[in-house]
């Protein structure tokens, strides 16, 4: 029970890495406040874990909804021990296909929303609180069509350092988890049909020295470590969970 008596916020927790992190957090004794954009999915997950969770519908790309999320927590007198900024936009496109609206959507979801969520939520963070960003190994490699996505995620790498320095006196620390290729439903969003999806997965596995994709719960295990008291001396850094993609 490494997270016993801790209250944790996980954004984008209705599938993939967020869902795996929610379930591991519950197993480790935490009470989890989680968000998702889909009301039905949020309600279904809340029903599955009625005693251990509080589900809130929230779009991470919208600053006003992040402010409202924090207000809801304040109204319920909830103070947090850890946050997993997991919700993200994984859109990939060749350079020439991007529109200004799509650019804004990627950065609003991956950078702007999280930044202003953190700005608003600092007053309800407990002593020794841990904030974890979900990055990507793409920031270290030139993966096809990851141009804008990787650019947004490397911003989080910088924020993990600068915000750790800004808030070190308040004992609030920031770190980044950077997964490599991970088997999640996110691939359904970037592939137009099953054949294209399978071809994409095959090409990705080919570049992974471990010869497989990560499982969502393997990434979630890193979050548990960073959310726990075991990692109090881990500040402003990045943990790669990439099957050797970056370093081998």
Overview features:
43% helix, 248 residues, single chain, Rossmann fold
List the helices and strands and how they pair.
Elements: E1 7-10, H1 16-27, E2 31-36, H2 39-48, E3 53-57, H3 63-75, E4 80-85, H4 100-121, E5 125-134, H5 147-166, E6 173-179, H6 186-190, H7 194-206, H8 216-227, E7 238-241
Parallel strand pairs: 1-2, 1-4, 2-3, 4-5, 5-6, 6-7
Protein name: SDR family oxidoreductase
Keywords: Oxidoreductase
Family: Belongs to the short-chain dehydrogenases/reductases (SDR) family.
Model description:
The protein is an alpha/beta fold. The chain has a single domain (7-186, 215-240), classed as NAD(P)-binding Rossmann-like Domain (Rossmann fold, 3-Layer(aba) Sandwich). Helices cover 43% and strands 17% of the residues. The protein contains 8 helices and 7 strands. It has helices at residues 16-27, 39-48, 63-75, 100-121, 147-166, 186-190, 194-206, 216-227; strands spanning 7-10, 31-36, 53-57, 80-85, 125-134, 173-179, 238-241. 41% of the residues are buried.
Overall helicity = 40-55%
Q: Please give the order of strands in the largest beta sheet.
A: 3-2-1-4-5-6-7
Spell the H/E element sequence.
Answer: EHEHEHEHEHEHHHE
- Tell me what portion of residues adopts beta-strand conformation: 15-25%
- The overall pLDDT average reads 95
What is the rounded Rg? 17 Å
Distance between the termini: 34 Å
pLDDT < 50 stretches: none
Assembly classification: single chain
| Structure classification | alpha/beta
At the fourth CATH level, what is the homologous superfamily?
NAD(P)-binding Rossmann-like Domain
Tally of strands: 7
Largest sheet geometry? 7 strands, parallel
What fold name goes in the CATH topology slot? Rossmann fold
Name given to the CATH architecture: 3-Layer(aba) Sandwich
For the record, what CATH class applies?
A: Alpha Beta
3D shape: globular
How many domains in all?
A: 1
Number of helices: 8
Keywords: Oxidoreductase
GO molecular function, one term: oxidoreductase activity
Family: Belongs to the short-chain dehydrogenases/reductases (SDR) family.
Organism: Acinetobacter shaoyimingii
């Amino acid at each position: 029970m490494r997270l016993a008596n801790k209250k944790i916020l996980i954004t984008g927790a209705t599938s993939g890495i967020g869902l795996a992190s929610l379930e591991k957090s519950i197993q480790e004794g935490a009470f989890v406040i989680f968000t998702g954009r889909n009301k039905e999915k949020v309600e279904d997950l809340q029903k599955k874990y009625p005693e251990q969770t509080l589900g809130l519908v929230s779009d991470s790309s919208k600053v006003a909804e992040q402010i409202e999320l924090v207000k809801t927590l304040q109204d319920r007198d909830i103070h947090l021990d850890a946050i997993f900024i997991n919700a993200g936009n994984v859109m990939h496109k060749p350079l020439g296909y991007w529109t200004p609206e799509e650019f804004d959507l990627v950065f609003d979801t991956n950078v702007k929303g999280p930044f202003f969520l953190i700005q608003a939520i600092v007053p309800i963070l407990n002593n020794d609180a841990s904030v974890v960003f979900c990055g990507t190994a793409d920031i270290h490699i030139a993966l096809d069509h990851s141009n804008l996505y990787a650019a947004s995620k490397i911003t989080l790498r910088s924020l993990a350092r600068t915000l750790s320095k800004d808030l070190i006196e308040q004992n609030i620390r920031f770190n980044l988890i950077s997964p490599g290729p991970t088997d999640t439903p996110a691939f359904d969003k970037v592939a137009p049909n099953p054949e294209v999806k399978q071809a994409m997965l095959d090409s990705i596995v080919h570049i992974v020295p471990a010869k497989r994709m990560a499982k969502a719960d393997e990434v979630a295990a890193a979050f548990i470590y960073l959310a726990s008291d075991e990692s109090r001396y881990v500040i402003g850094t990045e943990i790669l969970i990439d099957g050797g993609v970056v370093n081998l």
